[in-house]
Specification:
The chain has helices at residues 2-6, 10-24, 26-29, 32-50, 52-63, 66-69, 74-89, 92-104, 113-130, 135-145, 156-169, 175-184, 187-193, 198-205. With 206 residues, the protein is mostly helical. α9 (113-130) runs antiparallel to α10 and α11 (156-169) packs antiparallel against α12 (175-184). The chain starts with a helix and ends with a helix.
Amino acid sequence: SNSLYKNKKYKESLRYSEELLNGMKEYDSFIYDKYLFYYYNLQVLNYAQTDTKKALDYLNKASKSEDIKKLPSYNVFIYLNRSLIYYYEGNYKESQKNIARLICQEDFLLLDKSFQLKILVTELMIRILDSNKNLKAKIKDIQENFKQLLLEDNHVREQKMINLISNKINKKDIEEDKENILLYMSDYDAEDIDIISYNRWLRIHF
């Protein structure tokens, strides 16, 4: 199911996720709780691409499950996916609200620093579409708190995105910044590793 999702075969992926659910119900649901998160995750990922209303419905169901609430990744799963669904619907206000809630959770600080950085850059990308409010302060905080990480080769694109957004809110020309980011990595690879593809975001919004 995961492989089919990666290859954008969403209907087939969902079909296999239902086979997973059937297997979870066997032997008096002996392994049901163990794999419930994986089932919901597959529903949310696939329906986020094909039917955002259903994706949100599954997120709401997952948010009420006591077994899923116990998981360390619970807040990331709920708030980040809600934010992304609203973003792809064009509801940037709700998208920004959900990613901001995630960042405020104590669990956020338990995430890998690289993932934290990617989430914070994603918040900048969403926030600038809704409002420039507090953007300068947020950029300053990221640059101070992730100074060393931003110097690493693995995060050159995050640094470039921060610079581009900073230049944009300061009313500077961003064409060269945009071109540098688009040339740095293929659209295919950007879709695979970014929370929201930097390439796609730039092509659509700027």
